[in-house]
Amino acid sequence: MSLPSPLPGAVGLSHISAYDWPAADGVRGGSPHAHLTCAEAYVVTHGTGAVQTLGPEGFAETPLHPGVVAWFTPGTIHRMINGDGLRVTVIMQNSGLPEAGDAVLTFPPGVLADPGRYAEVAVLPAREGPAAEEAALRRRDLAVEGFLALKAADQRGDKEPLRAFYEAAAALLAPKVAAWRERWRDGALAVAEATGAQLDALERGDASHLWSAAAKSTGPTREAGFGMCGRRQEYEVPGTTVPTTP
Asked: Can you give 222-241 as a three-state secondary structure string?
């Protein structure tokens, strides 16, 4: 029995070199954002830095250095901070959904409420080149602006701006859910169901699925593109198209 994903468990994988661009608050790093359906993990491989997170439990900053694994569940706003040459391997739940754009950047409320304006700022004009870098920096700065407002509200004990962000994010991405459901069925759900079928077979003493055993390897399919958190190497799922928003 073959599996529908090139990576174990239908996860997504990329390598990130954190942005070194200083933001309005003097911090160097990436674009704060939250995923609506996918958990994410940072496996730190080089350098130092931190990840700032904001969610129902409040604001936190977790130091990052080699050997640390930091992870967060859907809805956790996260911002990668570059201390000194920070590089991480990112593992994403539900490979195919992050590529389809399940993340929402923390733009100010007026931008989140306008799908056309959101897309104008979030989508990069190209994967490489000066125009792409300029757009990625502009996108980062606007996301930081919204993030700092959410952080300030949280520190005042006011959760309503975070609630409004969640509601705006859900409304913004609701039209994409039908297409996401198909990706989930063909990816993460299919892998889980394949495991269930294998367990059923083994319980019967049937080892026939082991005759589909194979060893595979792959290299990055996209080198050093502009991501939300930094320059990224991606391992794309065959048959999908990776947009310029993640």
From this structure: EEEEECCCEEEEEECCCCCC
Q: How far is the C-alpha of 64 from the C-alpha of 47, rounded, in Å?
A: 8
Among 60, 133, 139, residue whose Cα is nearest residue 107: 139
- Do the strands 77-92 and 40-55 form a parallel or antiparallel pair, or are they unpaired? antiparallel
- Tens-place pLDDT, residues 120-150: 999 988 778 899 899 999 999 999 999 999 9
- Residues of the chain under the 70 pLDDT cut: 1-6, 222-224, 236-246
CA 173 to CA 95: how far, in whole Å? 17
Largest CA distance in the chain: 62
What is the token pair recorded at 39?
């958990």
Q: How far apart (Å, rounded) are the C-alpha atoms in residues 187 and 236?
A: 13
Q: What is the Rg, in whole angstroms, of the alpha carbon atoms belonging to the chain?
A: 19
* Residues ≥6 apart with Cβ < 8 Å to 26: none
Q: Which residue has the tokens 């958190």?
A: 229
CA 220 – CA 232 distance, rounded (Å)? 10
Residue 52 Cα to chain centre, angstroms: 14
